[in-house]
Amino acid sequence: MIKIAVCDDEKNVRNYIRELIIDQDIDCEIKEFANSSEYFLNNYEPDILVLDIDMGKDSASGMEVADLIRKKSHKQPLIIFITGYPEYVFNAFDVEAFHYLLKPIDEKQFARVMQLAITKVTKISDSDTQSLEIQHDGNRKIVPLKDISYIESQNHKAVLHINNRKIAYYARIGELEEELSDSFCRIHKGYLVNLAYVDEYSKSEVTLTTGEVLLISKYKYKDFVRAHMRFVKKSEPGDF
Question: Pairing between strand 99-102 and 191-194?
Fold first, then answer.
């Protein structure tokens, strides 16, 4: 089930957007919020967030909400801005908005954008189900790929770095490189990095979203840049 949040200070607009979403005939849960405080206090983690930009003086703006989500939230929703102010369109790029729609809402355009968002969420969900099957301490263990920030080669073992813990098991990093080539990239003879965790990089090191800094081999740099660009392009938000 797809989780959708609608955040707008006008109740009639929220109701209207709810009806437009229901018209898409999808299996979804819809929650409504009148302002930024309601949204953050609820701790709701939607797949799609339909967000007004101007929500009155008693609320943070939609741009501020989106910026905070991008900086703080573990789960990153697709954000669809709905506003009467076209001048904010360029600011939407700064918070990686999926789309930007103007009021009054064009119902056909809303339906098209929502279907694009649903398709993207479904693809993300499918990728989240991918996993690595390992033998650890004599037991078979399934590790979701999305939980692994990077894999380290150490004493004939592969060490999986997962949040604040490590899981080591016997495996060749070269074989893992081939198996996980869609979302991981070899940046050094000793490191295989999950591209989803790359925060920034230089010619000598890669910084992960976890704060960890890994060395990058000069021989691997060009291949890494190409792999990262392909990954970003595949994951980038929609055009608006």
Answer: unpaired
